[in-house]
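Homework help board

Subject: predicted structure for assignment chain

Our instructor gave us this sequence and asked us to write out the predicted structure in token form, then describe one feature. I got the tokens but I'm not sure how to describe them. Can anyone check?
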Amino acid sequence: QVQLVESGGGLVQAGGSLRLSCVVSGRTFPSYTMGWFRQAPGKEREFVTHINWSSGRRLTADSVKTRFTISRDIAKSTVYLQMNSLRPEDTAVYYCAATMSTSLDAHEYNYWGQGTQVTVAS
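My token output:
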């Protein structure tokens, strides 16, 4: 089993920044891909970005590519999502997730955190 605990969400003004953290514990493998997804009210869960735990190779959605950056600290077993130039449309619950695949599909992710709310005020 893998446990994921997110933190760092909150209320921020448009144009501001937040950094989300996801602490990973339990049984993990170097080949895991760690992803961030988000879900706004009334919308489906949306892929944001992911990173391979061992290689550090990343993939980010075009909608946030110039503003969001995923990283990981292996020693701290933590994945981060740095979000800059936030917009009201970024408001959502953000989830950390883990998969053995390289998929962008949320259904391929086996483990999920509880989510952290990000609210961007205009």
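Reply (TA_rk): Your tokens look well-formed. For the description, you could write something like this. The mean pLDDT is 95. That's the kind of observation they're looking for.
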